[in-house]
Amino acid sequence: MVVCTLACWRCRWLLPLLLGLAIIMGIIALAGRGWLESESEPYVHQASLWESCTRGEQDINWSCESLMDYGWGRAAAATYLVGFVILVICFALAVIAFSVEILRFNFVRGIGGLLFVVAAFQIIGLVIYPVKFTEEIPLIGDNMFSWAYGFGWASTVVVIGCAFFFCCLPNWEDEVLGNIKPTYYYSSPERAPYLN
């Protein structure tokens, strides 16, 4: 029977895989046009991290305004983008760290520290955007922060979880490297009479 927990050698690729998932969600958040959308018909407003688009109820074409003309728009985009770039660097470092036969666990803990920095940058961008957007951009009808904004938060939550695991992984160094013999527990003496 094979038991695989986080602290085993075969499962060492789970953390870089989760970082890759966070990168994919970050790409969707950066490229998606669904940060803010009209909640119901008529769909007259949609926005991304980069621009805000509106149209009349009878119009087909969207009229877009860049959010980079606003200081808060540049700040939100810059902080989320800086966090994303550091996340990509952490992913590359994690792949390198887990490819080496003898892991350098202080190196792994450093990746965890960088991931907390990533989370801080992404949270700042994700908080600046809705607060300043609703203050400075006139909203028409009922609007909601939508799927792309949700992917930004999902990426941030995965990064926070990975940061904790990367910081705690050196505590299980012997288990990960396979330096400890497994301990077997038997429920009754009848099942293991040779132990008496």
UniProtKB/TrEMBL annotation:
GO terms for cellular component: cytoplasm; desmosome; plasma membrane. Keywords: Apoptosis, Cell adhesion, Cell junction, Cell membrane, Cytoplasm, Membrane, Transmembrane, Transmembrane helix. Coiled coil: none annotated. The chain crosses the membrane at residues 12-32, 77-98, 110-131, 151-172. The keyword Iron-sulfur does not apply. It is found in: Cell junction, Desmosome; Cell membrane; Cytoplasm. The keyword Secreted does not apply. It is a multi-pass membrane protein. GO terms for biological process: apoptotic process; cell-cell adhesion. InterPro entries: P53_induced, PMP22/EMP/MP20/Claudin. Belongs to the TMEM47 family. This is p53 apoptosis effector related to PMP-22.
